[in-house]
Amino acid sequence: MSESQEIALGKESDPAIIASFGLYENPELQAFINVKGQEMAKISHRPNLNYEFKILDSPVVNAFAVPGGYVYFTRGIMAHFTNEAEFAGVLGHEIGHIAARHSARQQTKQTLFQLGFVLGVIVSKDLAEFAEPLAQSLGVLFLKFSRDDETESDRLGVEYSTKVGYDAHEMANFFHTLDKMRVQSGSAEIPTWQSTHPNPLNRYQNVNQLADKWQTDLNVTNLKVNRDSYLKSIDGLIYGEDPRQGFVENDYFFHPELKFQFPIPRQWKTANSPQQFQMASEDGKALMVLTAGKGSSLQEAANTFNQAQKLTVINSRSSSINNYPALIQMTTHKNGGSAKTLKISSYFIQYEGLIYAFHGLTVLADFPQYESTFNYTMNRFDKLTDATKLNRQPDRLRIVNAGVNGSLENALTYHNISVEHQAELAILNGMDLKDTVTAGMLIKIVSR
Question: Model pTM?
Fold first, then answer.
């Protein structure tokens, strides 16, 4: 892949990534990562690229780079850094992938992971192929790097962060936080940043050795950690899922900002993003998606969808869903990859000045099995009026003084953190519950 092709791929992928996750609305924090990113990019091995650094509105603990100079951090990973040096190490690691052209190389030699309609819901190959264009644009997020690539990016991350004045030993310490998250989950699953960046058992030791080497080679001392200033910069950061963007509760999806609700089939898997909400049956054979309709009228929205997906219309009729104007249609789609025909039930609903498009799809032979489920959910799209749902607020990080001399456990108890949440808060602080704190020491807690 040439450099011009690499840059073009980044520019093409960026809008799809932003549409799927959304940017986190915090101008100060966005400015922070851009300033630090541009500073580090200038001393990288490819300073000529036009780098862009962005925070995505996702609770997932992840950071990734896209060919051409695009680097993304989630608010989830920003919440788990305990100082600026940890952030700088991961920042250098991701710039390292770009500098060493790992993503560009992988892009040319492997097939992109098929995502279905969007991240998070796994569907059968038949349904995934229907959404192939989106899968292709987002597949760069799931490129797997070799152990050699990862070792090289670790080395570059240590080099770059040391050169701009940070203590790269803190980058190694962040691996401990990731491992504690894995242990707390009680399963073999590991945080996204670790799972998409394979982590050899000796990685912590290697990074510490690299930090020693670069600090010696550059003859630098008094390197920055910047714990307190970093913690103050993430005070108020949304932690976990943001219910303002929609949430699932008691087999219903509620959207406080857009003021609508609808039921979810029991046992179906769900995934929410700014772009759309999806539901998939446990076996992955049926999928429902709610997204924005494109057009100034119901018929125009339907026509646009049909043309974009190359659908054959079986029937179409005007209707009303809970007194809101609607257009209901049935279509088919010939799936070239599997030679199977998909059948799609679509409801286009006009509500609060917007058009919502609800689609239920499965292969033609399975449609009778799922048709009533599709209809039940889509016919119950309605206005959200419950004040307890409309006023639901997200949890936020709060940076506070420990308040007591003693252990972190003592401090969390002092701040009324329940026992069942203390282990999670210890990980969030990069500490163990028995670690010592002083009354004036800054720590993270979570409150609504």
Answer: 0.83
